[in-house]
Amino acid sequence: MTKTEEPSFRDRPKNIDPKGFRKWVYAKKPKGKWYNRRTAVSILLLIFFIFAPIIKVNDNPFMLLDIENRKFIIFGVIFWAQDILILAFLMLSFIFFILLFTVTFGRIWCGWLCPQTIFLEMVFRKVEFWIEGTVAQRKKLDKSPWTKEKIIKKTAKHTIFILLSILMTNMFLQWFIGPERLWEIITGSISEHYKGLAIMLGISAFFYWVYSSIREQICTMFCPYGRMQGVLLDKKSVIVAYDYKRGEPRGAKTGGDCISCNRCVSVCPTGIDIKDGTQLECVNCTACIDECNIVMTKINKPKGLIRFASVEGIENKKASVWSARTKAYTAVLVVLLGIFVYMLASRPTVEATILRTPGSTFMETKDNKISNTFNIRLINKTHKEAVLTLKLLSHKGKIQIAGSEIRVKDQGKFQTIFILTIDKKQITSDKMEIQFGLFNKDKLLDKIEVNFVSP
Predict the structure, then answer these.
(1) Distance between CA atoms of 157 and 331, rounded to whole angstroms?
(2) 145 Cβ contact partners less than 8 Å away, ≥ 6 residues apart
(3) Less Cβ crowding at N or C end of the chain, within 10 Å?
(4) Quick one: which of 418, 420, 419, 423 has its CA closest to 369?
């Protein structure tokens, strides 16, 4: 690869000048096959972001992360605090999926799936292109004095940015409190919800700051994922790459296909030159691929000078993405997913917790019987109402439950108190272990072991 004007070693990101000041990136509006595909993916993800908490599955949201009540609904499946181990395996599976995806396909998560990129490139930048126009028009507007036209355009753009940030925040809150609760807060009195309003406005201000000012610096300076790719990528990883074998030496009359037009740089949202090789700022957005293909078509050269390819594929024309690491990550991912599926399928349909009532000891009756008071807490994880029966399995005794029956609504909770009385002849120690069985008709749902105290 021939040397460019930039040295091979860089001690700063492309959007920072030698004095450490910010260089504003004026990215050209992309167009082409890959941009259209990315737009379609972004639209689907935005629809999912907006409607996932609204869509109902068995009268429950499709997605809800209710941290306050420790209730998490993921793809219609409810997880409670007692399912934290299952959720842990789900999160580990997701992390290994991202690692495997990065090792295999580079930083495609950042360019295609990351919310930061989707909202910046597919929402806020589109507003900017619509109001301020092309790169040349935007540069001219920013350098011009504050005329009437500039005031109108800047005011319109930032007003829309603020409204979009507020809308984003409210859509984001749906994931944590649900659409019903959100609507209740929006339509309620400000005096009753001033704390929630303050939090919403604070998050909105942060989003506005990110998408109007910080922008690509989130990816190049704050997000650790860009630095991770230096460890995760290898020669077999498929990334957005410049085919230097075909493009060099550069120039219209030198024999290589690259004519040094730098159109790939003009369209890059982080301002890098893909011809310099893999860089942490590259988010695999494919804008440079589309732009280069347009140039190749105009000069009657084959498309794909910049394309998805691996270093090994360019050097040796080998397309295999399988390496020892990808095989290892795949094996671990399969194991984690297998454990997650098994734990999800085998978890009890009703979660039962029985504890002795705090502050109570035991009661002794005249007929030589001992009684303990217990609290029982039930969580129904099914979509059907459950009428349950509690029985003592390990001993003979009498259970007296407060209320007529144990009836737990679908996906609901139930809590009550009961008294267990056992004959003294059965008691073997002052802290005897006993076992309860929770039944739905004749079907045993769960076994619970507790201590029974006595003199």
Answers:
(1) 49
(2) none
(3) C
(4) 423
What count of Cα atoms within 13 Å lies in the side-chain half-sphere of residue 177? 14
Q: How many domains does the chain have?
A: 3
* Separation between Cα atoms, residue 329 and residue 364, nearest integer Å: 61
**pLDDT per residue as tens digits for the range 208-264:** 999 999 998 888 888 887 777 767 787 888 889 999 888 888 876 667 889 888 999
Q: List CB contacts of 413: < 8 A, sequence separation 6 or more.
A: 377, 378, 379, 380
Largest Cα span, the chain: 110
Which single residue is written with the structure tokens 């609290």? 375
Amino acid identity at 315: E
Q: Residue 416 sits in which domain range? A: 350-453
Question: Cis (ω within 30 of 0) for the bond into 145?
Answer: no
> Which residues, other chains included, contact 43 with Cβ-Cβ below 8 Å and sequence gap of 6+?
122
Are residues 150 and 251 located together in one domain of the fold?
A: no
Spatial distance between the Cα atoms of 92 and 99, rounded to a whole number of angstroms: 11
Q: In this structure, how many other beta carbons lie within 10 angstroms of the beta carbon of residue 200?
A: 19
Distance CA(276)–CA(289), nearest Å, equals: 15
79 lies in some domain: yes
Q: How far, in Å, CA of 262 to CA of 273, rounded?
A: 8
Mean pLDDT (the chain) is: 86
Beta-bridge partner residues of 307: 241
What's the pLDDT score for residue 153?
95
CATH number at residue 443: 2.60.40.10
Residue 335 lies in a domain: no
**pTM of the predicted model, to two decimals?**
0.78
Residue 325, domain member (yes or no): no
Coil, strand or helix: which one is 15?
Answer: coil
Beta bridge partners, 306, equal 242
pLDDT(3) > 50: no
- Say how far apart CA 376 and CA 418 lie, in whole Å: 8
CA separation (Å) from 410 to 167, 384, 405, 418? 33, 5, 16, 22
Judge if the upstream peptide bond of residue 7 is cis by omega within 30 degrees of 0: no
**Residue 288 token pair:** 């440079």
Q: Name 414's bridge partners.
A: 378
Q: Are residues 89 and 186 in the same domain?
A: yes
Angle at the Cα of 42 from the Cα atoms of 40 and 45, rounded to 5 degrees: 115
Please give the Cα distance from 205 to 166 (Å, whole number): 8
